[in-house]
């Protein structure tokens, strides 16, 4: 056990910090959930990151990455969030589909899709949930019917983040007549293919953060299947492990939020009760605890370990922490909490926006109720209901 | 940066844990109470033969010359079994304190060999195990005195935890007993050891409740198959999972002695206390009315957790340390590990008092 960065790790941190300081946009980018313009501004940032080979630091060098271990990935993320760099518009691609494709994809798929993903040429959305299949994902009804060397996709997907403007989606389908976990396939399809209709869904604040996707006999080549025929469930569960467990929510995100909360508290301290300071301290402790748990997890994974049910404990913890943290922010703002603001100055948080986003945390990436079932059954060994 | 135990650390911890779990069962605890035993002689012999009391003592004093990360998992295991013997404070608090005293009258080697020394630290109103100790480390102003038991009179105060034998002591300081000045990081070591034990206590409460929930049937099914029960236990387990790494980090960082390191210890104590508290209350709930009884074993662990939550500094005192840290040092990524915050080249603090 050595809780100290090596000289090489510190030099790496300095390198990331210097690049970020020289390259991050001077002001906040327009939201990628409101306009095509905002979406494209974020695509350009992805291109710039990729140009500096900072897009996917854990990916192999041949794919434009740096082949870094997970401790360096954490350092990179810390500097990324510390610098206030834009939210990754392609996060579902690079953090979820990317690692899954490296594990299950064919050489042709990897050679074609991964560099385009890295360069921001293809921005990806996830198309798994359906109106009738949320927590019970094995209940998806959308079908992929084999027709020679094509699949014909039919059905309806929903809650696809960033799908309003994204280029491609990775969807979960089933062979007609198959049931539950059998007969599933994971298929990649372009969101502008004939037969695809997207309907934006407005969030409670009016932002178009997700879309419904209607598939009406959409033809895609069989080569777009990720993993084997009938293995769709297995491939999805591997993705979900990355999603909940590690890559989607690196600790720096919350450490930076806690830091901003401390600054907000200090700026308003004169008219706040001392108990508010204790809440801020608790939020800071939670962010630190999450960081330590992830450092321990990454150390274990670097040594050859695998992600188990702790992806579920992580998911519950970060989602509940995010709500508690943003709620403290609103409580400090008090009567001003309800006021809509223009984009905040760099370094400040938009506590209202962050709170509304945080409310979705216990739902997406597998509801916390399902995560608690997973912990109870796979970690504690309680019987299935 | 490597936040993981070495193979050696895991091997030593597992061996100690196996011995403790095998010998210190709840049935054995009940037998000790019937016989009014303060310690189990056979187990204490095992503990000393494994060299556990002297793990942190230098080799020239007969110890193993190891550090807190080597011992922290054993302190957890001692909590897990509700160990009555004073291993954790002896090895984790007293031996390091003796090692730092100018004159320990040979007691460093004695303590490392398992002869019991206890401590009256200002953080705690009473002294534990004064009746079975051969010597006591007691404070007089900033002075630390090493007093043999026959020079001390003591009066027992009953704790809700029958294995915590607490005493008020009366003694007279003299030049002959003066052994050094300043407690150093003793309070932090005490808090860390309490935190580690509370992690073990919390896990034991959950494990007991899980075993019961698999067995106990209502409405024709094990109660552990109902989501309402599952979610109670999962929530308690999550709280433990995010307290444990803080305790482990505190073990690695404590020796730095900086404000960042002391705040990590404070966080560990707060988080472990809350996690153990939730786990114990959850176990009582899962056991239903049985959870309130003497017959069910949960109370052994609940009571120890209750006591340790306030030992070596209350949560409020530790929260004050956290607030000091947030006032004086920067927060956020790259300002997390105590080693990141040594020296001024690592970013300026957020300005202004917290």
Q: Would you kindly provide a written description of the structure presented here, covering whatever features stand out?
A:
The complex is a heterodimer of chains A (385) and B (354). Chain A is 46% helix and 15% strand. Chain A is an alpha+beta fold and 385 residues long. Chain A folds into 3 domains: 83 residues, no CATH class; 107 residues, Butyryl-CoA Dehydrogenase, subunit A, domain 2; 131 residues, Up-down Bundle (Butyryl-CoA Dehydrogenase, subunit A, domain 3), CATH 1.20.140. In chain A, strands 1-4-5-8 form a 4-stranded mixed β-sheet. In chain A, strands 2-3-7-6 form a 4-stranded antiparallel β-sheet, with no helix packed on it. In chain A, a hairpin with a 2-residue loop joins strand 2 and strand 3. In chain A, helix 4 runs antiparallel to helix 5, helix 7 runs parallel beside helix 9 and helix 9 packs antiparallel against helix 11. The model of chain A has no long low-confidence stretch (mean pLDDT 94). About 2% of the residues of chain B have low confidence. Chain B starts with 6 loop residues before the first helix and ends in a 26-residue tail after the last helix. In chain B, helix 5 packs antiparallel against helix 7 and helix 7 packs antiparallel against helix 8. In chain B, strand 3 and strand 4 form a beta hairpin. The longest helix of chain B has 30 residues. Chain B folds into 2 domains: 175 residues, Butyryl-Coa Dehydrogenase, subunit A, domain 1 (Orthogonal Bundle), CATH 1.10.540.10; 145 residues, Up-down Bundle (Butyryl-CoA Dehydrogenase, subunit A, domain 3), CATH 1.20.140.10. With 354 residues, chain B is of the alpha+beta class. At the A-B interface, helix 3, helix 7, helix 8, helix 9 and helix 11 of A face helix 7, strand 9, helix 8, helix 9 and helix 10 of B.
């Amino acid at each position: 056990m050595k809780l100290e960065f090596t000289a090489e790790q510190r030099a790496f941190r300095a390198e990331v910090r210097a690049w970020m300081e020289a390259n991050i946009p001077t002001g906040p980018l327009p939201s990628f959930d409101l306009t095509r313009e905002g979406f494209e501004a974020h695509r350009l940032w992805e291109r710039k990151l990729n140009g500096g080979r900072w897009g996917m630091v854990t990916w192999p060098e041949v794919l434009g990455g740096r082949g870094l271990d997970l401790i360096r990935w954490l350092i990179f993320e810390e500097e990324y969030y510390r610098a206030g760099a834009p939210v990754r518009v392609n996060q579902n691609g690079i953090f979820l589909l990317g690692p899954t494709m490296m594990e299950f994809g064919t050489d042709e798929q990897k050679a074609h899709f991964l560099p385009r993903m890295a360069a921001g040429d293809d921005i990806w959305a996830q198309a798994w949930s359906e109106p009738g299949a949320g927590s019970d994902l094995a209940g998806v009804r959308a079908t992929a019917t084999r027709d020679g060397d094509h699949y014909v996709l039919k059905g309806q997907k929903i809650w696809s983040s960033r799908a309003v403007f994204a280029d491609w989606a990775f969807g979960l389908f089933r062979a007609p007549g198959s049931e539950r976990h059998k007969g599933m396939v994971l298929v990649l399809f372009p969101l502008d293919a004939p037969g695809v209709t997207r309907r934006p869904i407005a969030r409670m604040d009016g932002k178009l953060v997700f879309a419904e996707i209607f598939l009406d006999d959409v033809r895609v080549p069989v080569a777009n299947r990720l993993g084997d025929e009938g293995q769709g469930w297995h491939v999805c569960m591997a993705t979900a492990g990355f999603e909940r467990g590690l890559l989607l929510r690196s600790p720096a995100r919350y450490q930076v939020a806690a830091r901003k909360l401390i600054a907000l508290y200090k700026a308003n301290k004169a008219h706040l009760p001392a108990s508010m300071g204790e809440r801020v301290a608790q939020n800071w402790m939670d962010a630190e605890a999450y960081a330590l748990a992830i450092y321990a997890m990454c150390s274990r994974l670097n040594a050859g370990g695998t992600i188990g049910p702790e992806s579920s404990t992580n998911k519950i913890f970060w989602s509940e922490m995010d709500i508690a943290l943003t709620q403290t922010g609103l409580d400090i703002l008090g009567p001003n909490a309800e006021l809509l603001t223009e984009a905040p100055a760099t370094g400040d948080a938009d506590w209202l926006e962050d709170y509304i986003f945080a409310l979705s945390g216990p739902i997406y990436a597998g509801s916390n109720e399902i995560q608690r079932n997973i912990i109870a059954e796979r970690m504690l060994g309680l019987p299935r209901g | 940066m490597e936040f993981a135990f070495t193979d050696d650390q895991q091997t030593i911890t597992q061996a100690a844990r196996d011995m403790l779990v095998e010998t210190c069962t709840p049935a054995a605890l009940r037998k000790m109470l019937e016989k009014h035993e303060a310690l189990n002689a056979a187990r204490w012999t095992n503990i000393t033969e494994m060299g556990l009391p002297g793990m942190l003592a230098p080799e020239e004093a007969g110890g193993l010359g190891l550090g807190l990360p080597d011992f922290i998992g054993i302190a957890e295991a001692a909590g897990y079994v509700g160990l009555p013997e004073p291993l954790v404070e002896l090895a984790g608090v007293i031996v390091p304190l003796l090692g730092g005293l100018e004159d320990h009258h040979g007691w460093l080697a004695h303590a490392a060999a398992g002869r019991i020394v206890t401590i009256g630290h200002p953080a705690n109103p009473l002294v534990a195990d004064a009746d079975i100790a051969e010597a006591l480390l007691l404070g007089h102003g900033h002075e630390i005195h090493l007093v043999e038991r026959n020079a001390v009179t003591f009066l027992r105060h009953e704790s809700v935890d029958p294995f915590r034998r607490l005493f008020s002591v009366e003694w007279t300081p003299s030049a002959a007993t003066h052994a050094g000045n300043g407690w150093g990081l003793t309070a932090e070591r005490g808090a860390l050891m309490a935190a580690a034990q509370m992690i073990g206590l919390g896990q034991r409460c959950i494990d007991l409740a899980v075993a019961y929930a698999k067995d106990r049937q209502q409405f024709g099914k094990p109660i552990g198959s109902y989501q309402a029960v599952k979610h109670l236990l999962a929530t308690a387990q999550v709280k433990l999972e995010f307290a444990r790494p803080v305790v482990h980090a505190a073990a690695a960082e404590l020796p730095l002695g900086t404000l960042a390191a002391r705040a990590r210890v404070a966080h560990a104590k707060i988080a472990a206390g809350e996690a153990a508290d939730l786990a114990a209350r959850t176990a009582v709930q899962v056991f239903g009315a049985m959870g309130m009884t003497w017959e069910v074993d949960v109370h052994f662990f609940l009571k120890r957790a209750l006591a340790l939550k306030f030992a070596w500094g209350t949560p409020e005192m530790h929260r004050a340390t956290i607030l000091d840290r947030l006032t004086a040092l920067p927060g956020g990524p790259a300002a997390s590990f105590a080693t990141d915050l040594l020296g001024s080249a690592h970013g300026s603090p957020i300005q202004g008092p917290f």
